[in-house]
């Protein structure tokens, strides 16, 4: 595939989403497209697939050539047998009632004979590890299985080029690893792939990396070259490999993907200071001690939406004032259902949940939400106003707060999420990170003591996630209790005081992030993975360090 | 993505029947229900349906709608009893009079409603959307209409799921749609309707993109994947259904199975 001078401006867009992109890709090659949100990654994927300009009106210029033929003028559906695309949202791309019908859909549309369709269904399900699932209803699959099914459904069209648009970003660590393994082994590693991703782990597989910035190619190179430039990654909103940040700091060579970190770790080992590490642990203890009285308590909590189907199976827990608690576990472990009990969105079938000592069974959700603010995973489930100001003032107005105080609260909440100056903007026109901030601000304006967030980093890039988490840290320092459900282990490592590990409706561990990431058997049984820096330091230094910053603090100057 | 599906994904005696034969059988059950108003005849129909519920393993769906079924049965029975005055007087409680024939007819009407809903549920529980569309296309339904129909089935469940989440998201910001006057209540629904509407449009947009990208076109017939060969058992179901339906109409015309002949 060759891309020459690709320019695209969405209708009504102020500037081009793609601005003169030139690329070339050989058969069997893999290219990872990285960059901040709105950098043009999805626009590039849609253009390569032909969805742009057919499905998205705007000004298009440039040329895309596949196997020596320009794709311009070809309809999207005509390219289904040549270029396949898997989207980030696995829910919206599955629409059949059984797994085999889903996989058969593309070859059916391509007019492939039935016998061949049956062979392809069998082969593709085997490729993605879903053999035996053919009669299953896709709705009953886990997130990782659904995304692998979406991949199988596209592979059944036998495309020459496979485009993956952030396909792992909604998955739990296990689902993500399963998906990466499948992608890595497609056709013996010889499937031509263009993959948009925020994750350097995904881009660490053999291939090249292209970084987009404001629609232009800001950098390109092999995975080894790019991942060894942590500052370049940070500047472009990509989470850097933390071990390389440390290497840069101590003047050593960065480690390429699959490189041996032995020398670097030996040097870190030499320079590490046990006393400084102990001070770190001491500070952590002090921080935990400084937390206040229990604010949310669950006692023998059980929840069954219907007879015979228990989602929460006997949970006892106590969350104290000013804690930052991360709830982690596989998709379907019961995390979201548990936090829905904290503000009365779900009520216990058995047992009790108490907020500030009062049972949620005797308190109305209307009163509970003054104490416990809940931010949904998808901000689009709540935004409806024509301005940011009106959206943020909605909650306080419903509670009868006087107008003058509403103004104060809105200003305070928008300042906290750094959206001051956006008061008159249409919230629906903001990027995902901006909409997420509006959702947080609209809850903050109700001044709850506890903030509960359900997977707040979904769809956000590294920079946006960092900004949101820093905001939560500041709010926590001001006295708010924070509870987050997340699949991002680096977020847990960097921000949480405490980690609750869930599996099959139970809390299987109530521990600190440091203890969690040092316990490989717990991680494995809960389907979690430790951040690389924590795994490496646990294994080679015998101490679990949670971030590059922490590690730097534990090193002696040369 | 379907989340509120009624289809029971299990291999059963009923699910194995060709969808065309199942449509014929369901239609026959409707004809029987409509033909008679005598509770004894309708009890026979309900017993047959009870066996079908067990055979199709659709009891789980009957349980889901048991409250609705109960309310419909009670409401229909009570209303017909109160408003019809046919046959000898059985009971008088102030202005309320209960006549024998009216009470029997009312009971029959309640049973008829239940019988029709149960027949429909057995069909939905044992038939995939794709099988239903396949059958309808065999009956001459154009491809775009059939596909739109099957998509609508899927979108309804997604819409319900979105609406539930949006309602929760606004409730926890203090929205109380159940208080205030009628105008106020209508206005309070705006925070619910806009996110559902916007989210649905986005979902439809994603769905359209996914369909296009997977080569779907309304104008070209896709390779049939579901192939149903009508077997002896299916022919037998159609023949029995037709006989039962015609037989019911004939019996009713001859005056059997009626409490009140005029109704």
Number of strands of chain A: 20
Order of helices and strands of chain B: HHHHEEHHHHHH
CATH topology tier name of the largest domain in chain A:
Rossmann fold
Going by CATH, the architecture of the largest domain in chain A would be 3-Layer(aba) Sandwich
Oligomeric form: heterodimer
Strand-residue fraction of chain A?
15-25%
Share of helix of chain A, binned: 25-40%
Shape of chain A: globular
Q: Regions of chain A with pLDDT < 50 over 5+ consecutive residues?
A: none
Low-confidence stretches of chain B: none
The helix/strand class of chain A is alpha/beta
How far apart the termini of chain B lie comes to 44 Å
Number of domains of chain A: 2
* Helix coverage percent of chain B: 55-70%
CATH class bucket of the largest domain in chain A: Alpha Beta
Summary tags:
heterodimer; A: 558 residues; alpha/beta; Rossmann fold; six-stranded mixed β-sheet; B: mainly alpha; 2 domains; two-stranded antiparallel sheet
């Amino acid at each position: 595939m060759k891309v020459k001078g690709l320019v695209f401006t969405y209708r009504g867009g102020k500037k081009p989403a793609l601005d003169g992109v030139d690329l070339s890709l050989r058969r069997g090659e893999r290219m990872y497209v990285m960059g901040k949100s709105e950098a043009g990654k999805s626009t590039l994927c849609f253009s390569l697939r032909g969805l742009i300009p057919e499905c998205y009106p705007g000004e298009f210029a440039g040329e895309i050539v596949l196997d020596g033929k320009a794709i311009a003028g070809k309809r999207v559906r005509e390219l289904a047998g040549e270029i396949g695309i898997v989207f980030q949202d696995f829910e919206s791309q599955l629409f059949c009632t059984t797994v085999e019908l889903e996989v058969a859909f593309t070859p059916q549309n391509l007019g492939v004979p039935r016998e061949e369709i049956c062979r392809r269904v069998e082969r593709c399900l085997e490729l993605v590890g879903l053999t035996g699932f053919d009669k299953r209803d896709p709705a009953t699959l886990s997130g990782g299985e659904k995304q692998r099914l979406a991949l199988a459904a596209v592979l059944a069209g036998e495309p020459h080029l496979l485009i993956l648009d952030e396909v792992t970003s909604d998955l739990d660590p296990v689902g993500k690893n399963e998906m990466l393994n499948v992608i890595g082994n497609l056709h013996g590693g010889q499937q031509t792939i263009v993959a948009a991703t925020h994750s350097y782990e995904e881009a660490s597989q053999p291939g090249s990396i292209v970084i987009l910035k404001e629609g232009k190619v800001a950098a390109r190179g092999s995975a080894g070259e790019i991942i060894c430039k942590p500052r370049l990654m940070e500047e472009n909103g990509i989470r850097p490999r933390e071990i390389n940040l440390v290497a840069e700091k101590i003047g050593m060579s960065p480690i390429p993907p699959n490189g041996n970190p032995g020398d670097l770790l030996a040097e870190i080992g030499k320079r590490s200071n046990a006393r400084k590490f102990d001070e770190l642990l001491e500070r952590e203890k002090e921080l935990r001690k400084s937390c206040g009285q229990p604010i949310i308590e669950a006692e023998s909590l059980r929840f069954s939406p219907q007879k015979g189907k228990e989602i929460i199976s006997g949970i006892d827990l106590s969350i104290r004032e000013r804690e930052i608690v991360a709830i982690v576990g596989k998709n379907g472990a019961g995390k979201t259902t548990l936090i829905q009990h904290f503000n009365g969105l779900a009520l216990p079938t058995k047992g009790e949940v108490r907020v500030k000592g009062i049972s949620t069974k005797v308190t109305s959700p209307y009163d509970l939400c003054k104490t416990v603010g809940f931010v949904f995973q998808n901000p689009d489930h709540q935004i409806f106003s024509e301005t940011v100001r009106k959206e943020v003032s909605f909650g306080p107005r419903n509670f009868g707060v006087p107008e003058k105080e509403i103004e104060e609260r809105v200003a305070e909440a928008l300042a906290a999420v750094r959206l001051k100056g956006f008061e008159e903007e249409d919230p629906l026109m903001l990027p995902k990170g901006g909409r997420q901030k509006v959702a947080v601000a609209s809850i903050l304006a109700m001044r709850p003591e506890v903030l509960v967030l359900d997977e707040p980093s979904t769809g956000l890039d590294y920079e946006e996630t960092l900004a949101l988490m820093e905001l939560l840290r500041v709010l926590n320092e001001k006295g708010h209790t924070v509870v987050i459900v997340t699949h991002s282990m680096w977020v847990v490592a960097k921000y949480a005081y405490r980690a609750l590990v869930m599996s099959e409706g139970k809390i299987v561990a109530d521990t600190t992030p440091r203890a969690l990431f040092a316990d490989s058997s717990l991680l494995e049984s809960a389907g979690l993975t430790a951040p690389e820096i924590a795994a490496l330091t646990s294994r080679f230094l015998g101490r679990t360090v949670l971030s590059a910053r922490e590690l730097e603090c534990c090193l002696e100057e040369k | 993505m379907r989340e509120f599906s009624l289809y029971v994904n299990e291999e059963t005696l009923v699910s194995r029947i060709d969808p065309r034969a199942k449509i014929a059988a369901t239609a026959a059950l409707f004809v029987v229900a409509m033909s008679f108003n005598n509770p004894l005849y309708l009890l026979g129909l309900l017993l047959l349906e009870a066996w079908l519920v067990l055979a199709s393993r659709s009891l789980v769906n009957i349980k889901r709608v048991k409250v609705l079924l109960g309310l419909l049965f009670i409401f229909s029975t009570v209303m017909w009893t109160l408003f019809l005055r046919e046959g000898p007087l059985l009971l008088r409680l102030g202005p309320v009079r209960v006549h024998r024939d009216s009470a029997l007819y009312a009971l029959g009407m309640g049973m008829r409603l239940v019988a029709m809903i149960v027949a429909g549920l057995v069909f939905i529980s044992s038939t995939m959307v794709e099988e239903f569309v396949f059958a309808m296309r065999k009956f001459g339904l154009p491809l775009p209409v059939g596909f739109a129909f099957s998509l609508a089935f899927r979108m309804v469940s997604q819409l319900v799921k979105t609406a539930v989440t949006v309602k929760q998201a606004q409730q926890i910001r203090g929205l109380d749609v159940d208080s205030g006057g009628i105008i106020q209540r209508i206005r309070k629904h705006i925070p619910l309707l806009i996110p559902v509407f916007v989210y649905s449009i986005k979902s439809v947009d994603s769905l359209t993109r996914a369909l296009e990208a997977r080569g779907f076109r309304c104008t070209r017939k896709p390779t049939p994947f579901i192939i149903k060969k009508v077997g002896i058992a299916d022919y037998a179901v159609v023949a029995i259904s037709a006989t039962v339906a015609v037989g019911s109409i004939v019996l009713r015309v001859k005056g059997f199975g009626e409490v009140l002949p005029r109704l």
